[in-house]
Amino acid sequence: MREAAAPPLWQGAVASEAAWERLVAPCEEMTRRHARSFYYASHSLPRGKRQAAYAVYAFCRHVDDAVDLAPDGAALAAALDRQRTLLDDLERGRAGSLPWAPAFIAVWRWARIPRRYLEDLLAGMAMDRGRVRLQNWAELERYCYHVAGVVGLVMTHVFLREPEERLLLPARDLGTAMQLTNILRDVGEDFSRDRVYLPADELAAHGVTEADLAAGRVTPAWRAFMAVQIARARDHYRRAEPGIDALPRDGTRRTVWTMREVYGGILGRIEAAGSDVFTRRARVGAAGKALLAFRAWRKSR
Fold first, then answer.
1. Rounded Cα–Cα distance for residues 174 and 245 (Å)
2. By the 8 A CB rule, do 113 and 154 touch?
3. What is the b/e burial string over 163-194, where b = at least 16 CB atoms within 10 angstroms of the residue's CB?
4. Please, where are the H alpha helices in 35-92?
5. Separation between Cα atoms, residue 122 and residue 92, nearest integer Å
6. 10 Å Cβ neighbour count for 254?
7. CB neighbours of 20 closer than 8 A, spacing ≥ 6?
8. 53 and 251 in contact (C-beta within 8 Å)?
9. To 5 degrees, how large is the angle CA 286–CA 290–CA 294?
């Protein structure tokens, strides 16, 4: 797919490319420290898109940390209000003292990211605090959209600036698939924080109780439940693939295929462990990532 012509990111933001490199450095460092899988995959991107992705991640990380510090409902509401005010300031070009903000402002303008996506992301952060119980797939799907699907939409603007409408749903599907993968991997850890992101009605239909989750029981009922969830995640990965194949061959397609393969590989690790997500954390090691990255390269050609 041919991209719309666009000036380099730094033009209009700073006086020189060297100044831009200094501006984006805090964003890259935040990504390197806190988003290892994405940082690993991002090196296939053209430098401008890679730097833009780092700036988007820095914004997401900052607002997530700010909201996460809220100890109660009143503090959460106040924190969200502050982040909405921050959005107003960033939209007006006001970076304040935040080291990542000037780069994000430039990216927001350059990529023409709709503000509603950033507001949806803030709404998702409010859903992800304190005690969490989700009743059904509709609630889980909504949660996945607000915390991950919308990030896929934002990144589609970074990758294409003016994406075709047909590419938005696959981007959302990929974000949903990746978030479902995270949820299935982290069941035990999340339960220890009084957060259950699994659909309550589906747990009950399989005969799995919260007592089972608390005890970390890997029963036939639990494995059957997990098989359904893994199949659901894989279905969303499959639905995302036509959108990935429509991305430019400048490294963008390879990067997104790498993310899809690495996250999808976690599902295989969960299966290999017999769906025991209580005593071990499913992960793809360095050798596995290298193999999946090669597979992604072949698919992106």
1. 13
2. yes
3. beeebbbbbbbbbbbbbbbbbbbbbbebbeee
4. 36-42, 47-68, 73-91
5. 18
6. 23
7. 9, 10, 13, 14, 51, 103, 106
8. no
9. 170
Buried-exposed string 205-234: b where 16+ CB fall within 10 A, e elsewhere: ebebeeebbeeeebeebbeebbeebbebbb
Per the CB < 8 A criterion, the answer to whether 255 and 44 are in contact is yes
HSE, CB side, 13 Å, CA atoms: give it for residue 277: 29
Kindly state the helix (H) or strand (E) to which residue 196 belongs, with its residue range. strand 195-199
Return mean pLDDT, the chain. Answer: 90
Bridge partners of 199?
A: 134
Look at residue 235 in the predicted model and tell me its pLDDT: 98
- Token duo for residue 64: 């997530």
67, 83 in Cβ contact below 8 A? Answer: yes
Confidence of residue 244 (pLDDT cuts 50, 70, 90): very high
Cα 78 from Cα 172, distance rounded (Å): 29
Other Cβ atoms less than 10 A from the Cβ of 274: the count is: 11
For the chain, the residue count is 301
Output the six-digit token pair for 110: 């350059």
Sequence-distant (≥ 6) Cβ neighbours of residue 30 within 8 angstroms: 54, 57, 58, 61, 100
Lowest mean pLDDT among 82-86, 208-212, 296-300: 296-300
- State phi, psi for 11 to the nearest 5 degrees: -65, 130
User: Is the pLDDT reported for residue 5 higher than 60?
Assistant: no
- Tracing tokens 């033009």 back to the chain, one arrives at 11
Helix, strand, or coil (residue 261): helix
Q: What element of type H or E holds 162? A: none
Contacts of 133 (CB under 8 A, 6+ apart): 196, 200
- Signed CA dihedral, 143, 146, 151, 156: sign only: positive
**Would you give the end-to-end CA distance of the chain in angstroms?**
13
